[in-house]
């Protein structure tokens, strides 16, 4: 029955062993894979996987599995013991065998299920299950060894050493225990070596992290240096820009001062020109007065001369009338004297004209006057030639008369000679006729002389009229020249006034532009002040935001601390749970021990009242034939194993101490390095904050300097504005004066127009005089007609005489011849008179033509004057166009200046915007640095909290070590329990064996 039970148990254990080997292989492969992955993984993942909570849970699961296996083994042993106890009675043997088989099968199934279930728990639980399975296998082997086998004869010459079975069992048990302890220590050494590897990897990772942190710090330092350099460069650029702005402002001030100087100089020049113009006007007025006086004097002198000439002419005419009858030769002299006087008068007139021409100094008018004088000279020469011709004709007439007289005398002599024979009556009649003829001839001559004198007087009057006309024309020309001069001066004045007005307008435009620019500058300054106020408001808002951030960060730190405390609460709770679990396990082990003791006591109680079995006394010792060297080797092995156990225990303790020291050193190093890094970062951030504050102060100082400079530059601009207002008032007064001058000039122009009207009236008068001359010519024609009538009368007389002669033909042939001769002479004289009259008419026609030419010349002069006026007007228009072009150019230049000033203003605005951007960037940097400082403070606070939590962490490590020690103690207790169970089983087996035997 026992053999059947053992066979079933062996089969169950074999199945369990197979299952456990498969589980061991799977778990070892899983452990190796997890170990390799754990070694290859990062420290963070290793740290996350090797948390205390997971290790505690794995330890609790392993302890629970070992407890279950121990309970199953105890149940199986109890079932076997009950079966053996029940097998003592032969009646209940079958039932006991059945129950033992059932319990053994259930125990085997529970062992298999527990081993399979514990194989999946993890590497920590599989180690304990392996040890328990090995112990069970050893127990089964011992049970097989305890079976009654025949002794094996050893082929050794040594005598067999007889040892008691208990000793040998104890030695074997000790060997097994030592082997188990060695295995446990080796496993612990492997674990410690893996922990050392992990710690070394952690150290390497920490060193790498520290190197990275140092590199990051170096990079931060370099970046900070670069930032400082950039800030210094920005400051230098700002200083340069400020200097450039100052230079530009100074240049603008200089330009404004130069413009003011130019304006003042222009005003002075304008005033001087006005004074010069006034002086010139005064001088011109004085000259005009002098010229008028001179003209009046000249006119008076001319009138006196003309009166004297008229008196002289009258006297000469009287003398001529008196002396014509007496002296014909004196007529020539008188005519010569008249010609000389006329020449003298003409020379005087020419001298006067030359003086006037020299006063006027105008070439064109001089040329015209010279032409007029030449024409007059030609007229005079023609008149002289005509007079000479008249004189020659008179001389010829006289010669003819003398010849006629001589002829008559000769005829008379001939008649006398012929008529000596005639009677005295005929002689008397002839004498009477001769006397009558002579009287008629004398009367005719007197009439001719009177007619000639009248013609001469008329011609002299015409000449005087022509001279008067010439004088009037000269006066008109002088007046026209003066008017032209006045017009030129007025035009010059007008041009200057226009130039002055244009300059004033330009100055006003410049002043308006300057005022506009000043208004723009003031507007820009106001905008800049508003921008500065906005910046100050932004700074205040940023400071308020910083304070709010600080408050938020303080609140966050408090919340983090509370969260840390809340995170520590589960750790504390876990520690409490671990302690409770340890207490529960210890209580379970104590309960198990108590249960075992109770079972042993129950077994003893059950076994004690049995009847004593008669044993043969003395009993033979149970011996096993073993060779002595084997026993010695076993003892040496036991000693070596004990030494190795001691050494391994020492090594384990040393390794644990080293691990603890390394962990502490690592933590301290980490904390110190983190503190150093944080302190360095704090120092750097503080330095950066100081630098940024200095830069902000510098920027504020620069802005203040800019504002002061702008204010200092605005003061002279205001002074300039006041000066410009004063200049505007002065210019307004000057404009009023110029308007007055323009009114005066308009009055002068009206006077000139009146003078032109007077000239036109004079021209009309000249035309009237020409008409009068035409009337005189008509009168002369009438006189000629009268003479013709006289000739006709004479012809009638001749006809009568012819009739008489016809009557007296017979008697007075000679007389008729004489009469015919006389009549022929008379006809000749009449023809001469007619010729003279025709010549006079021709001369008058020539004079009329000359007058017409003079009028035409005057008209040409007027046309030339009008052309000059038109040219002057065109010049004025051209000058006005030029001035307009200049104004346009000046306006364009002003627009260009305005554009340049606007560009400068835009550049100033850009600079201010850049300054604002720099300020905002600096403020953002300050905010970032403050945020970094706050983060560093938070990290430092967290590290300090970690430093404060170090004892808690050390306590956790100690608790973990205590847990490991408790595990070891529990394992040792389980081994002791198993040994006790084995001893009990062996005792029971021996007891049953001896009882059965």
Write the layout of secondary structure elements.
Blueprint: H1 2-40, H2 43-49, H3 52-86, H4 93-119, H5 123-145, H6 165-323, H7 329-360, H8 363-418, H9 424-607, H10 628-807, H11 813-996
Structure explained in plain terms:
By secondary structure, the chain is an all-alpha fold. Helix content is 93%, strand content 0%. It is built from 11 helices and no strands. It has helices spanning 2-40, 43-49, 52-86, 93-119, 123-145, 165-323, 329-360, 363-418, 424-607, 628-807, 813-996. Helix 9 (424-607) packs antiparallel against helix 10 (628-807). The radius of gyration is 83 Å and the shape is rod-shaped. Mean pLDDT is 57; it is low at 27-128, 148-159 and 609-624. It is found in: Membrane. This is ABC transmembrane type-1 domain-containing protein. The chain crosses the membrane at residues 64-88, 130-147, 167-191, 198-231, 237-270, 277-299, 305-329, 336-360, 366-390, 397-422, 428-454, 466-491, 497-522, 529-562, 568-585, 590-610, 630-656, 663-688, 694-715, 722-744, 750-772, 784-810, 816-841, 848-870, 876-899, 906-929, 935-963, 975-996. GO terms for molecular function: heme binding. Residues 1-17 form the signal peptide.
């Amino acid at each position: 029955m026992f053999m059947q039970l053992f066979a079933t148990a062996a089969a169950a254990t074999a199945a369990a062993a197979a299952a456990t080997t498969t589980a061991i292989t799977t778990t070892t492969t899983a452990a190796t894979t997890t170990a390799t992955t754990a070694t290859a993984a990062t420290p963070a993942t290793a740290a996350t996987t090797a948390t205390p909570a997971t290790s505690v849970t794995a330890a609790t699961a392993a302890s629970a599995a070992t407890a279950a296996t121990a309970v199953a083994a105890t149940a199986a042993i109890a079932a076997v013991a009950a079966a053996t106890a029940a097998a003592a009675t032969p009646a209940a043997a079958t039932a006991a065998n059945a129950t033992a088989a059932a319990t053994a099968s259930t125990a085997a199934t529970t062992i298999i299920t527990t081993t399979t279930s514990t194989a999946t728990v993890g590497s920590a639980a599989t180690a304990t299950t392996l040890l328990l399975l090995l112990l069970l296998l050893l127990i089964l082997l011992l049970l097989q060894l305890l079976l009654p086998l025949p002794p094996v004869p050893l082929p050794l010459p040594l005598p067999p050493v007889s040892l008691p079975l208990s000793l040998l069992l104890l030695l074997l048990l000790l060997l097994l225990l030592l082997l188990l302890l060695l295995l446990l220590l080796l496993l612990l050494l492997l674990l410690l070596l893996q922990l050392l590897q992990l710690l070394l990897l952690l150290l390497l990772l920490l060193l790498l992290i520290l190197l990275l942190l140092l590199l990051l710090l170096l990079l931060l330092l370099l970046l900070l240096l670069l930032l400082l350099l950039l800030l210094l460069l920005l400051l230098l650029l700002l200083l340069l820009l400020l200097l450039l702005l100052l230079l530009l402002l100074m240049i603008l001030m200089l330009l404004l001062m130069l413009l003011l100087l130019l304006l003042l100089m222009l005003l002075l020049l304008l005033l001087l020109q006005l004074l010069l113009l006034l002086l010139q006007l005064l001088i011109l007025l004085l000259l005009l007065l002098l010229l008028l006086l001179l003209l009046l004097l000249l006119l008076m002198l001319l009138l006196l001369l003309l009166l004297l000439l008229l008196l002289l002419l009258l006297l000469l005419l009287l003398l001529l009338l008196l002396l014509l009858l007496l002296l014909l030769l004196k007529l020539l002299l008188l005519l010569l004297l008249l010609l000389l006087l006329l020449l003298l008068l003409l020379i005087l007139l020419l001298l006067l004209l030359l003086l006037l021409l020299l006063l006027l100094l105008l070439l064109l008018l001089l040329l015209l006057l010279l032409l007029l004088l030449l024409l007059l000279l030609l007229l005079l020469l023609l008149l002289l030639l005509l007079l000479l011709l008249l004189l020659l004709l008179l001389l010829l007439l006289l010669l003819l008369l003398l010849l006629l007289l001589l002829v008559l005398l000769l005829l008379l002599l001939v008649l006398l000679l012929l008529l000596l024979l005639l009677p005295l009556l005929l002689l008397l009649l002839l004498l009477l006729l001769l006397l009558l003829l002579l009287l008629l001839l004398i009367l005719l001559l007197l009439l001719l002389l009177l007619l000639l004198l009248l013609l001469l007087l008329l011609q002299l009057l015409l000449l005087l009229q022509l001279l008067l006309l010439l004088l009037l024309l000269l006066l008109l020309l002088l007046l026209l020249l003066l008017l032209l001069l006045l017009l030129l001066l007025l035009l010059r004045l007008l041009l200057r006034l226009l130039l002055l007005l244009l300059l004033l307008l330009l100055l006003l435009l410049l002043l308006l532009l300057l005022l506009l620019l000043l208004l723009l500058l003031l507007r820009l300054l106001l905008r800049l002040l508003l921008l500065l106020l906005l910046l100050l408001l932004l700074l205040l808002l940023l400071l308020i935001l910083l304070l709010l951030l600080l408050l938020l960060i303080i609140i966050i730190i408090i919340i983090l601390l509370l969260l840390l405390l809340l995170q520590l609460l589960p750790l504390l709770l876990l520690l409490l749970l671990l302690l409770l679990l340890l207490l529960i396990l210890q209580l379970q082990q104590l309960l198990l021990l108590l249960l075992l003791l109770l079972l042993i006591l129950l077994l003893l109680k059950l076994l004690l009242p049995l009847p004593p079995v008669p044993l043969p006394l003395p009993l033979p010792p149970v011996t096993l034939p073993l060779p002595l060297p084997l026993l010695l080797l076993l003892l040496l092995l036991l000693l070596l194993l004990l030494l190795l156990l001691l050494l391994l225990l020492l090594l384990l303790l040393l390794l644990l101490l080293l691990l603890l020291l390394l962990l502490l050193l690592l933590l301290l190093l980490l904390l110190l390095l983190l503190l150093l890094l944080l302190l360095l970062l704090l120092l750097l951030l503080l330095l950066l904050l100081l630098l940024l504050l200095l830069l902000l102060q510098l920027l504020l100082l620069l802005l203040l300097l800019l504002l002061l400079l702008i204010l200092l530059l605005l003061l002279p601009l205001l002074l300039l504005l006041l000066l410009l207002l004063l200049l505007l008032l002065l210019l307004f007064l000057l404009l009023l004066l110029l308007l007055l001058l323009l009114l005066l000039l308009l009055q002068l122009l009206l006077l000139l127009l009146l003078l032109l009207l007077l000239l036109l009236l004079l021209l009309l008068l000249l035309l009237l005089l020409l008409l009068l001359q035409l009337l005189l010519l008509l009168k002369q024609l009438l006189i000629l007609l009268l003479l013709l009538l006289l000739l006709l009368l004479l012809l009638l007389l001749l006809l009568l005489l012819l009739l008489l002669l016809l009557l007296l033909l017979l008697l007075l042939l000679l007389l008729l011849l004489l009469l015919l001769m006389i009549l022929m002479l008379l006809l000749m004289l009449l023809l001469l008179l007619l010729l003279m009259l025709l010549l006079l008419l021709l001369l008058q026609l020539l004079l009329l033509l000359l007058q017409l030419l003079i009028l035409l010349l005057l008209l040409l002069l007027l046309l030339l004057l009008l052309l000059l006026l038109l040219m002057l007007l065109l010049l004025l228009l051209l000058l006005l166009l030029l001035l307009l072009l200049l104004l346009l150019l000046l306006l364009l230049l002003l627009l260009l200046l305005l554009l340049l000033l606007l560009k400068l203003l835009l550049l100033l605005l850009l600079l201010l915007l850049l300054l604002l951007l720099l300020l905002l960037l600096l403020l953002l940097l300050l905010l970032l640095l403050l945020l970094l400082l706050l983060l560093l403070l938070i990290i430092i606070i967290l590290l300090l909290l970690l430093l404060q939590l170090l004892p808690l962490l050390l306590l956790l490590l100690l608790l973990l070590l205590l847990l490991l020690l408790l595990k070891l103690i529990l394992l040792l207790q389980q081994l002791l329990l198993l040994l006790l169970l084995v001893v009990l089983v062996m005792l029971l087996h021996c007891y049953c064996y001896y009882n059965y035997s």
